[in-house]
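This part of the workshop introduces the protein records we will be handling. The question running through the whole workshop is how a given chain folds. To make this concrete, we reproduce a full record directly below:
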Amino acid sequence: MPEPGTMSEARSECALAVIGSGGSGVMQLGDLLLETAAACGLYGLLTRTYGPEVRGGESAGFLRLGSRAFEVLPDKLDLAVVFDWNNSEHVQQELQFKPDGWVLYEETAGDPPNWLPRDAPWCPVPWKRLAAEIESEARPNLVAFGALCQLLGLGREPAGAAMSARLGEQGGELALRAFKRGAAWIEQVGKRQWRLPVVAIDVRRWVLTGNDAIVLGALHAGCGFFSGYPITPATDIMEALSRHLPERGGLLVQAEDELAAINMAIGASFAGTRAMTATSGPGFSLMAEGLGLAVMTEVPLVVIDVQRVGPSTGIATKTEQADLWAAVASSHGDNPRVVLAPSSVRGCAELTARAFQLAEAYRVPVIILSDQFLGGRAEILDPIPLEEMDGQEQTAKEHGEVRAGGRGGGLGGADVPMMLPGMPGGEYTGESLEHDPSGRPDSSFDMHQIQARRRREKLQALGGEKGWLECCGDPSASVALIAWGSTGGVVCEAVHIAAAQGSQIQGILLHLLFPPQPGLLEPLLQGVETLYVVELSSMAQFLYYLRAFYKLPARVVSLARPGGRPYRVGELLTALNVSDAEAKAGRM
């Protein structure tokens, strides 16, 4: 195997992987690296890949650290640390290396698998022996942490602070010894160093996952009640709220199932508390009837769906974007609701806060579609100015007005403030049967016509609000990529790379998926000749959604594929080149 030559160089960024079996400390090492990089003035991104087993199975962390913010990983790696090769074939496609890449693998793990590239510089490292020389309880992953910080030029002081914060004083002392041993080993080997642009910063950057950001947005908006049932990959939301809600006088209930969870949240909201529930695909299916109840009773509700591979149990730990139709149309009957789709960690916070405001202003359920890649990835980002986020309450109490006729407001629309139980003059019945404006059941044809139209039309005002789509690239380009959710970051990076190569492309990201807004999207498509629809859905749900609600260009190309792993930039650029070549061949 080739060995790396001696080198030391400054780099604007570095992409690395940490590989091992579940329980080997891979995720802890990734978290420590990201925390340390943030303290050193860097930006970064960490994605986690792991199997569905409680312990064992594949476990991998992929990081990108550098001088600018990132939302996607590069296609090729600079560096990899490997503790064992067990189940590593599950991340085979992600282990692609740059020509000068370097692989540091545990010497007792044996030779690398045959499917790995033979031309990468391989270096066996005694991770386990170095840890055992310190103390039997010392962890090899912390030895590797020291080695990586030395390689990348990350300071020992911020690294020590990160270990103390995660492991406590007692654990931090042993960890620091392991850290120093790894750093010393790299210094002794002395063959390679990549120096990242470490800088001093006045304000510490944040490290947040998408799920963390959802919690942040909910707390900022005044969420006072959460009910949920544990389900991967949404459980992090409930766990974080279980710590923070009680501190703010709120209440969290772990329900017996998702049926109970959504109905508890509806009840809390009816009583006047801002309420939320969070789940993933299987649980979201169970919540369908509850969504209809929230629509009919006009009770504000925020529902988070952190999507995973389906159908049924699917693959709990992998990402997909195949709950779009369920979010838009689940539950029987006509069910007007709002569906939002953040494409970044920052967007998760901002849209969650906004969701509470919209749910209350329009008295509807608001669904936020995240996914495992977005919810589970961690980013280093500049502090979010919380004071600039939406989320203000819209109750009649705050407005200083009460209108007779309940939430229908005399068959009014979104301009009617939220009524709370016991407010004089705002009495009504929360009725799941079709009803008149005061909530009394009414099965007449005429009343159903009036109420169905009102429930639908009260959302029309949403089109006048800002922030429902995001653009990147050349707005005058004849070629456009359109996406939603976590795929948006890949689209924008591909657009920027294509521009650097001389190809002008426009990127469009939709953040409001329902109700559709033709008046916002269609003007952007007027000069587009070819529209590429990018999504992680084998049934091309986004493509057919667009065709159902929007007037599209003459040439529309679907770049849909199943989930299981996120779209990569190189994969997208290759698909564009192949499609362009096929189109030219067809015209010849």
The chain is about 35% helix and 20% strand. Residues 539 and 560 are 8 Å apart (CA to CA).
